[in-house]
Write a structure and sequence with these properties.
The complex is a heterodimer of chains A (364) and B (128).
Chain A (H helix, E strand, L loop, with lengths): L1 E3 L2 E3 L6 H10 L2 E4 L4 E6 L3 H8 L11 E8 L5 E11 L2 E6 L4 H12 L4 E4 L4 E7 L3 H5 L15 E6 L2 E7 L7 E7 L3 H12 L5 E3 L1 H10 L34 H10 L3 E8 L10 E4 L2 E12 L4 E9 L8 E6 L2 E8 L11 H13 L4
Parallel strand pairs in A: 3-13
Antiparallel strand pairs in A: 1-2, 3-9, 4-7, 4-8, 5-6, 6-7, 9-12, 10-11, 11-12, 14-17, 14-19, 15-16, 15-18, 16-17, 18-19
Chain B lengths: L7 E2 L4 E6 L2 E6 L1 H7 L2 E5 L6 E2 L4 E7 L3 E5 L4 E6 L1 H5 L3 H4 L8 E5 L11 H11 L1
Antiparallel strand pairs in B: 1-2, 2-3, 3-9, 4-6, 5-8, 6-7, 8-9
Classes of the chains: A alpha+beta (364), B alpha+beta (128).
Chain lengths: 364, 128
């Protein structure tokens, strides 16, 4: 266990590599109750959300979710979040734990006078069931047919006797479900799923494997790839920034930056020599610092060191060879496409989504 | 958790097997357990000098980086190169196959402050 943003976090249960491989091949269950939930209600909810976020929330149907971003007026990222639409007058943001207070205050400050804003984080628990066998594990203990639940959709159902919100998404690159329920009932849901999953080889999984899984997919993490000094354009999140929207906070700044040209870009790196790049390490070309590592690890699936980092645009093209400074030693690496791990998806929609993700990451 | 009686230990969680002036060094069962899955190891070359209480190498688990500290000054006479290629062996067999280096000790007095198995076990219980 380790302290994080006021929570005690389970880092690992049986071991990070075993948990990682189990999620890739069977399934794992993560307690992610530290994530924050903020509700926006009222007849002006959509208008408020459109002003606050970069993606286009008007495209959402009821019971659909989208990945979106809060920017400050300079275009820097306040948080990256998932937005859930229940109906025209009820939405929910799932936000990063360390940003919950900051995002809540920001929303209140910007739209508090027109929409009803409520931080319900303390009332809500969240667990993520991830891996190719997730559906088989969850189906026997719920009522609705999960095969009908499409990617980035959600619905209400009960798990055992516990009322829950079940969404089909995740942060691992595998098929899976993120489940919200009343915080004091989360233990029941956890036990129901673990016991249903026993015959499928389910493992309780910690945040260390969640990190290696997301890294293999090239998914950014707030505090590593994303922060208030970084724009979504630099982070390669252009697809979630709808500059054709009438207005949103940060739009003018982002348009200007796009016109001026993006100076640094987030890239994927693989190491060509032994060594593990870690956050903060310098990236060099011909002895000159041209960027730094934001996340790095040994990839349990690929069995080599991988990393993400920002580098000056002229050096960001595919296959560029670079040096990473690892404890006074220069270690060779190369710019590669993300995701690092290309899975063989079984779910067609998910497959299409992942393909889209890979295309998006092909930097020129 | 395993604490073989015939070994000596340091507060930096290395074990030392002392035979005359030769010390074989590795990391303890407790150390490998706390680090989790070990995926990278850096060791000095044969012939390199090591200095008491200073790093001679690096061990990395998936999540963290740790220095390996030498319990004594001396010169490295043998290196377990096979271990560098398969660092996961440290998790499986920390006191056996996962020995790291053998050092010819310059000053045997360097090892006066090492702990016995019992003392080390007590030390990590207090550390918790």
């Amino acid at each position: 266990m380790a302290p994080f943003a006021g929570w005690n976090m389970p880092i690992q249960f049986t071991g990070v590599i075993e948990e990682h491989n189990t999620v890739r091949n069977q399934c794992g269950l993560f307690d992610v109750s530290h994530m924050g939930e903020i509700e926006i209600r009222g007849s002006n909810a959509l208008e408020a959300i459109q002003l606050l976020t970069t993606n286009d929330a008007s495209k959402l149907t009821n019971w659909q979710a989208q990945y979106t971003i809060f920017c400050n007026p300079n275009g820097g990222i306040i948080d990256d979040v998932t937005l859930y639409k229940f109906n025209e007058e009820r939405y929910m943001f799932c936000v990063n734990a360390s940003n919950t207070g900051k995002v809540y205050n920001w929303i209140k400050e910007q739209v508090g006078s027109t929409a009803e804003v409520k931080d319900i984080s303390k009332l809500i628990g969240q667990i993520a069931l991830q891996g190719p066998l997730s559906l088989e594990v969850l189906q026997p203990i719920i009522n609705k047919n999960l095969a009908d639940l499409r990617y980035y959709r959600f619905h209400e159902d009960s798990i055992g006797t516990t009322q829950s919100i079940i969404s089909r998404m995740g942060y691992t690159g595998e098929d899976g479900f993120e489940i919200f329920t009343q915080a004091d009932k989360i233990k029941n849901v956890w036990q129901e799923i673990m016991s249903s999953g026993k015959n499928f080889g389910i493992l309780a999984s910690g945040l260390a494997s969640r990190d290696t899984l997301r890294l293999e997919m090239g998914y950014p993490l707030y505090g590593h790839e994303l922060n208030e000094k970084t724009t979504p354009l630099e982070a390669g999140l252009d697809r979630f920034v709808k500059l054709d929207k009438l207005t949103f906070i940060g739009k003018t700044a982002l348009e200007k930056k796009k016109e001026e040209g993006i100076k640094k870009r987030l890239v994927g790196l693989e190491m060509l020599e032994p060594g593990i790049p870690r956050q903060g390490y310098h990236i060099k070309k011909n002895g000159i610092v041209i960027g730094n590592i934001t996340s790095g690890t040994f990839s349990p699936t690929l069995k080599k060191s991988i990393a993400m980092g920002y580098i000056e645009t002229p050096f960001s093209s595919l296959d560029t060879e670079l040096d990473i400074m690892i404890r006074k030693r220069l270690v060779k690496g190369r710019v590669v496409t993300m995701p690092f791990y290309k899975k063989t998806a079984t779910n067609k929609e998910e497959q299409a989504y992942i393909k889209d993700e890979s295309l998006k990451r092909l930097f020129s | 958790m395993d604490f073989p009686e015939d070994l000596k230990y340091t507060k930096e969680h290395e074990w030392i097997k002392i035979e005359d002036t030769m010390a074989t060094i590795g990391i303890t069962d407790h150390a490998q357990d706390s680090l989790g899955d070990i995926v990278y190891l850096e060791l000095p070359r044969e012939g390199a000098k090591v200095i008491k209480d200073e790093p001679f190498g690096v061990v990395e688990s998936v999540k963290s980086v740790s220095d390996l500290c030498s319990p004594a000054s001396g010169s490295v006479v043998e290196v377990n190169d096979a271990l560098v290629d398969s660092p996961e062996v440290i998790n499986d067999d920390p006191y056996g196959e996962a020995w790291m280096i053998k050092v010819e000790i310059g000053n045997p007095g360097d090892l006066d402050d090492v702990l016995s198995a019992e003392e080390y076990q007590k030390y990590i219980e207090e550390e918790k």
